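Minutes, project check-in
Item: structure for the 566-residue chain
Input as provided by the requester:
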Amino acid sequence: MKKIKIISFFLISFLYSGLIFAQSPTIDDAKKLTVREQYVQAEDMFKNLIKDNPQMGDLYYYYGENEMKAFFSDTITLTQRETSLKCRRLFEKGLEMDPSNPINYIGLARIDYFSGKKTESSENVNKVNTMIPPMTVKIKKIPDPVRYAQLLAEMAKIYILQDNTDTAAAMPLLRRAIQADPKNASLFITIGDAFLYLKDVNNAIQNYNIAQSLNPNSSLAKLRIGYLYIRAKNLNTAIQSLEEALKIDPNFAPAYKELGFVYSLAGKPEKSKPNYLKYLELSGNNIPAKISYVIALFKSADYKECISQINQIFAVDSSINSMNRVIAYSYCEVKEYVKAQYYLEKFLKIIGNDPDKIITKDYTYYGKILGERGKADLAEEKLRTALGIDPTMNYLYTDIATYQSKAKNYKKAIAALNEKIAAKSAKIGDYCYLGKAYYQDSSYTEADQTFETLLNMKDPNLKSYEMLAISYQCYARTYIDTTMTGFALVAFEKLIEKALVDSTKNSKYLIDGYSYLGSYYLFSKTGKDYPKSKFYFRKVLAIDPNNKQAQAALKTQELQKAKLPD
């Protein structure tokens, strides 16, 4: 009985879909607009289609997918929470209007997975599984294998997200989909996307190439290949692939956007700008298109042009609050912190600190702006708010320490760096920074211990910090060993030994080392040795003939009488 119901569902779904598509063929046009990243136009088209065909569940799903893709292309002016709520409403409405169609359960599962609600996501996946043939049914027994493959591919997309791709869940679905619809190029693009997010370049390109061979008119496959080469910094090959995409479809807007980005990376603004402008033209050259252009400029780090374009938008419509955010970020990047603060605070005032409209970057940029303006405590407050939202952003502890150190609030800098160490995310540079903060705070014992920890690390980057760490440890020990018992002596001898490897480069460290040894043998009660003192101060003068400390020491009666050691 269950199998009969499943077969009946697919027969009805197939006939129903055929009827609707015959009457309204533009669902494919709407989906093409999404592929072309013309999200606003796609949204308008989906709204019109839903108005004419309110019972067609697929329309709600692909409208929601359009919104998700719009978010992933622009995580600056759009927020995850707003996107999730909008999509959830669409998928729930789709189920209400077309309850026998499982595709909107897939949509809900995608939103839950995307939001980190994996239990809820699994519950919706289980609902889908009760409405489609099980994986064990032979393909030839499935009445509409193409539709079946489509649903499996959409299910696979639940688990394909940047930084959160689960191939163990996605790949069996995609392999099954290929069995059902082996000539479907889009399935191989989806597989390529999964490998792309896993940074498996070879498998990604292989699948994009299969998609291209199955559908030679797929500009999307060429775009993806071009994107891979951009990530690999192979800009010439990326340009070639993107130009091939445009040969297939001269109106394929995303290819122009990526070409603009590539030429910007290559330092060729004369080629970058025309491609961005073509992207703008194809996207409608209206305010939404200009906003998309602004985001592209921001992502390509062309902050000055980004500011210029936003000011042009403001001349037409100054009420677009998201542009206050982007112009604030851009002013921050070009170090105009007063303007950056003005626009970011304007943005936050308008949204009223609505958590649905705030993103973590608002706090990280706010923290940076305040920190660079010397407002260390306020900067720390904003950066800690960002850490509260996303505890994985442990690099912010270093930023807090930087601003607090500049403000001479060394105890606060020390506290932040120790939190980073406790979170097991500190690198060797953080230990160096912590040791310096202890030293600046006159906590010399803690400074000495921190540098000792650093110098005993088995870290490939140790050499970059070694001389500086030994030097600071030496001076920390001079403050600990005020009576010159020899505690600092060992550290200075080590400093000299390391510095002699390249005496020209390390002349400053040699002067420091020889000066201390000269002073130690001149003033130490337990290790007094005037000939040795004279020997080391002469070494100082050999490097720096105008060194006043060495000149004064050698004029003392003790060193004038002393004979140099053999």
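Outcome recorded: Residues 481-566 form one domain.
No further action items on this chain.
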